[in-house]
Amino acid sequence: MYSLQTPLPAVTGIGPTLAAKLATIGLESVKDFLLWVPLRYEDRSQKVTISQLQAGELITMEATVDSKSNYYRGRRSIQSATVSDETGKLKLMWFNNKYIIDKLVKGQSYLISGKLNDRGMMVQPIVENVGVDSLHTNRLVPLYSQMPAIKQGTLRRILKHILDSMETESDLSDEVLTAAGLPNLKTTLYQLHFPDQPELVVKARERLAVEELLGLMKKSLEIKSQWENQTQAPVIGTKTHTVTLPFELTAAQQKSLSEVLQDLRSAVPMNRLLVGDVGSGKTVVAGLAALQMIKALKSVALVAPTRILVEQHAQTLQKLFPELPIKVISMGTTKAVQKELASNQEATFYIGTHALINQLGLIKPGLLIYDEQHRFGVNQRSATSTSIDGKVSSPHILTMSATPIPRSLMLTIFSHLQLSVIDQMPQGRVPVKTWVVPERKRPESLEWIEKHLSEVVENSSAQPPASAQALIVCPFIDPSRSEALVNVAAVTETFEVIKTAFPQRRVALLHGRMTKTDQKLVTDQLYEKQLDILVTTPIVEVGVDLPAANIIVIEAADRFGLASLHQLRGRVGRAGQQAYCLVFSASQKASAFERLQRFSQISNGQELADLDLENRGAGDIFGTQQSGFDQLRFASWTNVELIKIARTVFEQLNQLPEWQPLLDVRQLSAETVPLAN
Ligand code: ADP
Ligand code: MG
Questions:
Q1: What is the pLDDT of residue 488?
Q2: pLDDT value at position 670?
Q3: Which of 454, 452, 555, 446 is nearest to 501 (CA)?
């Protein structure tokens, strides 16, 4: 019998070597393992007879082995078998798979899952015994992102074994949750991996979504009480230092700024969330707040999710505030840099990625700003306080986010946060013209881009600056070998195609697996407008601000949620110019096409988020892709109903003395979610 706490080495089928490998990706207990959630499911439940077989359709059938053989062609071994049912005969074929031929027994029936090819046979089908609970055929089959050292089939077998040997009795908290209409924990985990019907996956994910929200609520409450009791923060003066900006702040920006400044004048550490749709101008508000803190002779630290954003923030903030001493802190902070940090007496505006958090003890910032983290200060809290004269001192914290969540619900979950909202766009913004482009029009669309880049270049008096730029975004870096991710546009391949298609243009490649130096080289060129076309991954999804970019092409767009698509589209037209978004998708599903069609018609982030939620029906669980930057794995900020349920349940559970959330913050952090890049 296993429980959620059972360590993985105690599970039959997981030896010490495998357990050690799993531990390297943070999987140590049965709970961790069971929360390795399928990326999607393949529907192999459709059962047909041989006479009903149609080429290209994924099916499962039951048939008897008539004959089998194993032979060699050159270096390759080939296995073949003939099977039959009462309606006909069929030839099956495998390559280099001697195991299968040993396993098949003449005269015995099997469940066979695969696709008929044009030559009337089935290549590399999956075979299982009839009668046992099938895992790989005859059902909705879960597909997982690659786990080190485990093949998909083995992973499924171990998961099934664990689920079949779990303790069954449910505890008090399980009862509270089921009373609220959610499935019990055992059902949840079972249906998540081996669903009987698509609808039951939805139910299971709802339960996990509520669990996730409960974890956040609990943590938030803890932070709130810590925060109020033991901390104090540096204050700024009452005078506001002004600078001349190239534009006027919107009323919403002004209001948010004064809310922030008011907090900074108090020694109670601020913990404020600044929310605003993509392009609403959050950075300048943060910059103005930073300016005041530095004038008060305290340093400021800004943490951004990617290297690119770090470089960009350094550049744009330096332009807006030439007098600010800005310093970029890079990943591998050396001893020398640490020494410099420690000895630097001047109030400095430090900008860096997550690694910067480890240096906060040296920097001792008065204000800590998180950009686009989507995690609302829940994880980082402990690293930020420093002890001065026996008193704990905390920086003020400002978190910026474009997450579309209704104000009232936000405060329901995050009792430790104050909220400022920028609900207004800078003047003169025009919606990005968006088209879903059919595959057959691809050549034309490339010509269109070429022409469009030229037109703008020649019209040199145009606003934005003379040279226009195009971004081409692909979901993944390499052509994927993982069976869950075949046929998805890969950035490396696309780069080659684009280079050939645009011989006159300066084309560059950018993705997260390039060296830091190479990434910086490309981003510098990009901001210096030495590039016309950038082929990239969703690494540019969040926050990238390229005023000259006016065309974005999104490949395999069905792989992205609407919120991600909206973020991506927000990368163009940021100087107020007319911009264009070309959306491609090879998906044959009518629902996918319709979703993208709606995306092309709607330009408001909140509206798209609502739509994403509406669409999250039973059919939509196949092939949904999470954005790597989102704190949430299961819940959605816009799922009002679930958030309400979570709130009610939380009030009851929080009364129970020994209640602990199923998902703790470690499990809630984005790092444990397999990222697309
Ligand atoms: P986001 O909220 O998405 O982070 P940014 O802060 O990057 O948005 O701002 C988007 C763009 O709009 C930037 O180029 C910025 O300089 C510009 N901007 C910000 N505020 C205004 C304003 N009030 N008027 C005109 N442009 C603005
Ligand atoms: Mg931003």
A1: 47
A2: 28
A3: 446
* Closest CA relative to residue 527, chosen from 540, 538, 541, 514: 540
User: Residue 569 C-alpha to ligand 2 middle, in angstroms?
Assistant: 13
pLDDT over 80 (residue 481): no
Q: How far is the CA of 603 from the centre of ligand 2 (A)?
A: 17
Whether residue 374 is predicted with pLDDT greater than 90 in this model: the reply is no
Token pair recorded at residue 658: 């020994």
Find out whether 451 and 457 touch, Cβ atoms under 8 Å: no
Tell me the C-alpha to C-alpha distance, in Å, between residue 169 and each of 3, 160, 175, 187, 330.
10, 18, 10, 12, 50
From the list 676, 670, 567, 566, the residue with the least C-alpha distance to 623 is 676
Does residue 250 line the site of ligand 1, with CB under 6 A? yes
Region class of 509: left (phi > 0), else alpha (psi between -120 and 50), else beta: beta
Closest Cα to atom 14, ligand 1: which residue? 574
- Reply yes or no on whether the pLDDT at 285 is more than 90: yes
Per-residue pLDDT tens digits for 124-147: 998 888 766 677 777 788 888 777
Q: Which of 169-173, 227-231, 383-387, 578-582 has the lowest mean pLDDT?
A: 383-387
DSSP assignment string, 310-369: HHHHHHHHHHH-TTS-EEEE-SS--HHHHHHHHH--S--EEEESGGGGGGHHHH--SEEE
Strands lying side by side in the sheet with 88-95: 121-123, 88-95, 76-85, 58-73, 109-115, 126-129
CB burial of residue 440 (10 Å; 0-12, 13-18, 19+): exposed
Q: How far is CA 257 from the centre of its chain?
A: 29
